[in-house]
Amino acid sequence: MIYDVVILTDRKHAYPKRIDDYTKNVITEDAIIQNALGRLGLRAARLSWDDEDFDWSNTKSVLFRTTWDYFDRFDEFSVWLDKVSTKTRLINSEAIIRWNIDKHYLKDLQQNGVHIAETHFIEQGSSKTLKELHKELGWQETVLKPCVSGGGWHTYKLNSENIDAHETIFKTLIDNQSMMLQPFQHNIVSQGELSLMVFNGQFTHAILKKAKAGDFRVQDDFGGTVHNHNASKEEIEFAEQTVEACAEPPLYARVDAFIDNDGKLALAELELVEPELWFRNHPEAADILAKGVKDYLLSS
Q1: How many CB atoms lie within 10 A of CB 39?
Q2: Average pLDDT of the residues in 213-238
Q3: First to last CA, the chain
């Protein structure tokens, strides 16, 4: 059979050994978009991106959804991306995926007028210590994370009391990859972080993520909670303008934003590869994305 769309997940969620709440959400999200595609007459299947038994030329497109192990297996994923891009169409495109995987993309968006969180990039192989960097930048409380990461992986909150204890792990990380250092954003803890979904260039819905008490990470992996959010005109315009600032228009995007320490709406991250989109909170948004996929296939 030739499929119109293969919805991509990872091996863990394609063949789950047990169904916990987290896995249930993944399966639910993928099912919602698969059903939305089906309602438009598109033949859709759901497969792990590393499925060795599937001939990727037997689908007209692949839709990146829950490939949530790609940064743990980045070299393998990158090789697969090279191969699959010669056999079918990628949604979003290979070029924009590769650009978005590395958070240096924030520099490009900033140059195109998007207000981002204040960020200092530390390139691979740097010999400077965390203490030296904090002294140079004049920052007292910061967050350190890799430029290629997701889900709070190797994300550390630093201050004068714990910085020495993180020097060893920082040295190991910076020897192998680039890192980024940002001033700690207090409003994310007190107010939360917004995720604004933009499909086909248009805002569809938003949610608010809040960290659990005593933590600074809003991801549900660390006990964060999700709440529906009625986005303001300013927030909607910010999200759509952020997507417009990309070198090419993505079919779907998630704009993560917050109020920074200066009281300004700022971009935390622009997620174009495999962001959670909370269709289970707003199932009608899946129909909007599905229509975008169909229009894309008809125009290609």
Answers
A1: 12
A2: 75
A3: 20
